[in-house]
Structure formats: C-alpha cells, structure tokens
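Pasting two entries for a bug report.
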Amino acid sequence: MEVTRYSELNVSENIKKAVADLGFDEMTEVQWKTIPHMLEGKDVVVKSPTGTGKTFAFGIPLVEKTDPEATQPQFLILSPTRELAIQIHQEITKLTKYLPGVRSVVLYGGAPIQKQITALKKNPQIIVATPGRMLDHIHRHTVKLNAIQTVVLDEADEMLDMGFFQDVCKIMEQLPETKQFALFSATISREVMDLMWLYQREDAVEITVTPEKESEPKITQYALECSKLAKMDFLIKILRLYDYQRVMVFCNTKSGTEMIRRRLAEKKFSVEALSSDVNQKKRNQIMKQFKARELQVLVATDVAARGIDVSDVDVVFNFDVPQDNTVYLHRVGRTGRARKTGVSFLFYTEMERARVKEIIRYTKVKIIPVRFSKGGILEPIPEDQYPF
C-alpha cells in the first residue's frame, strides 16, 4: 500500500513540520512514487509534467539524508535556468526551516561569482546550480565534489535542448562513481536517453507520471483572428474588458516585448518586459514585483520566460503565434496552475490560420475561435463558421 500523506513518510519530524507549515498534507503522484526510492538510495528516472511537485520529490529525500556535520557538499542539483535554480533553492530552504545545520547554496550565471565563492566557504551540504556556472566553479577550484552522494538533473530535456549535454557530462565526470543518479524530465528525448545510458545503474527505477483528468490544468483557450496592426488594440481592449490582475504576454522577438511594454505603459498599465537584454539584477527585481502583484502585466520572449513559475497567472496572451508547437503548450501552461482555472488568447493573422490548425492537431487541445461583437464584447464564433 502506497504512502500518500506527508505525515506517514519515514522522514524526520522536522521535515514533516516544515511541510505542514506550508499547508501540504497529501503528496502528489510524483512525490509518493519517487520519495521512497530516493530514500533507499536507488537511481530514479522520472518522466513527469512540469508543475507536478518534482522539487519536493527529490528535495525531501536529499534534506532527510543530509549530515548537518558534513563540511563538504553531499548533494548536487542541476537546473537548466537561473530562475528555476533559484526556485529550487527557495523550496530546499523551506524544507530545512527546522534544520539549522543543513546549509544550501545556489550558483548561477549573471550574478557576482565572488559572493557565491564566499557562500561556498560556509560549507553547504546541498548545491543547486546551472551547468555553466557549476563548471566555472569547478575550473576555479572553488568547490569540491568528491563527497557528492546524489546528483539530480531537473528538467533534463530542457537542459539538453539548451545545449548543455557536454557541460553536464563534464560535471558528471567530477562526481564519485558510487553516486545516486536522479533524472527528472517532462519528455524522454534521444539526448536524455543517452544520459540515462551513460550514468544510471542497471537497477534504476523508471517512474512515469501522467496528468490525471481531475488534476489537468483547467484552461479555457481562445483564438482571435486580427491583422498585425490590430493586435495591440485587441490586447488593450481585452485587458480593459476583463478584470485580469496577473497577465503574461508572449511574443517572438525582443523588439516586440519592448514595443508592447511601451504601448501598455502609455495606456497606464503597470507593465515590465523580460528579454535576454535584461540583466540579472533587473530581472530579479521584475520577477519580485510580478509575484508581489505590483505588476499587472509581464511581457516576455520564450527564452526569457524559461524557469518562471508563478502559480496564479490569470491569463496568457500569445501576442505572436509561437514558432514551435510545444512552445504553445509551455506558454499556455503558465496559467491554470495549482489546480486553478486559467484563460489564454492566441492572436493570429489570416495568413497564420494553417499554423493554428497545426498547433491544434499537434497539441490536441480545444481552442475556441472568438470575435468582437457589435456591442464590443467577445463572443464565440458559431461552429459552422469555424476558421480552422
């Protein structure tokens, strides 16, 4: 019989107390399937969608097994993006609330390396890092990895899609052969399989988690045909029609994010934009404002939005039709998280109808075509007039 409540886990009371403080009682599927195997020291390969609670699935076993007296890193968690690395570190910190002897550090590029070196000198047992910055510290000899007991690769498919395969391999070669290997991925790509073949033990446990119907995101998805020039007017009109308090707008280019930011600011919306041109300090400030609801609208490119995890986004706008079908799912998945409802809009031109058809065919999602009525409100287009 599976253990599905945190209170029944074979972990310390201090961890249970920290989890209880966060208001959690029942474990998610990925957690109750993964935690016991990781506590036993088995290698795990977990295929699980984003937003299913993977951080606690590996975080709880790592914190439980941490020796507060250890003066060398025992556990390494690799993350594809700085934002995700920071979020993982924050979750680990929450789990160690009643374990003052357990120390963790987060290492990522775009931040002063000297501060990270200083933090490493405080002998953290748990390291969360992006691959590039981890290699940087290895080359500088500012970190020793010879006592690592477990390595976790989170969002492995995204990490490898971003070109980190060689970096990950170089890091893995620095770790003891006896290490426990835990890989978490939304999909199992060819490169993910290569990593599994290279580093997992023969008795590795493979776990697959598929979203249950009742826990699938409840997102109402709309599509609105318009000219390129009308997109901005439509965006402003919809924002004024509906009481959306937390909004994400995606477009395909850096120049597009800045144009939208400027136009919305002119109309007195509280808005900021994220692109690869925004430095890390400004980026952190924008995300802090957005999470604190000091910003109504966040405009971003797909690259800039990687790793952003805000649980209660009201609506997502696809200002530009995404160039990749899976990107559409990633964008829309920013809303309707944590079992809340969400809304998305896809703006497309007449020339892009075929792309919308392709997205629908690939993703198998229901997208409702809508238009503005004569009264200025949005109404669904009758099925016999569907444009796709």
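Entry 2 (this is the one that rendered wrong in the viewer):
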Amino acid sequence: MMIRAARIEQKMTVSELAIRADVSRSLLQRIEEGDPGCSIGAAFEVAAIVGVPLIVEDPKTLAINVAHFKEKLALLPKAARKSQRGVKDDF
C-alpha cells in the first residue's frame, strides 16, 4: 500500500515502474497489494525506486510512516476508471 501511494504521488504508471524495476506488471501489482509470495528482492527494488523505506530501526518511526500513508490512501479514489455498466431503464 505504501509503495502504490508513493508511485501514484510520483505520477508513475504501473508499466513505467515495472520497466524501471525490471519486473512484470503483474508482479508489481502483487507487490503493491502486499502478496507474501513475491520475491523479497523485487519488493526491495521497487520500494527503493519510489523511495519507500522497508527497514526502519525505530518502531515509532515506522508507525508514523504507516499512519501518514494511510491518511494519503484515504484521499485517493478507489478506482480510476468509470464503471462500464450501463443503466437499464426499459421497464
């Protein structure tokens, strides 16, 4: 979630970040979702590119960073595209 927020804040698309990190788009999306089955090396690479620290010595600093990113995520829209479903009004 923090990686996705940092990517969006830097106005990078999933494709752009995937190319820079030399990973597939699907792996990048899984990393952003927090999938534990992802390669730790790929996760660290992606985090380093967008500037998200994954290792913090002070737990208080980590808690502050997480709270900060949660506030940002609350402001983001849940979807960027409008729904493709049309309205059926033929009664």
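Dev reply: Rendering is fixed now. As a check, the viewer should reflect this: The radius of gyration is 16 Å.
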